[in-house]
Amino acid sequence: MYCPYCDARIKRQETCPKCGEPIEFSGKSRFAALLLAFFFGMFGVQSFYIDRYWLAVTQCLLSLFFCWTLVVPVAVWVWGMIQAINVVRGKAYDAEGRLL
Q: What is the per-residue pLDDT for 89?
């Protein structure tokens, strides 16, 4: 995980040891977000889980309306994998800007 203020590597704690800023954590599970992004990233399910609804609706509609092209769903799947990588790296945020 990384501090959203100074980008220092941190463990799950209330304040950053480097800059001293308070860090808020989401009540959502990082593991659940990772699994949803890995298996259902093409449909934006992980974005629904972390309450980023506009992003989730965009991913879902792009996948559903352009499924016949095969290019757009693959691009949206890559988008979901990038979100999964951000969850693993500890740089994923919920809709209120709190770390997962």
A: 86
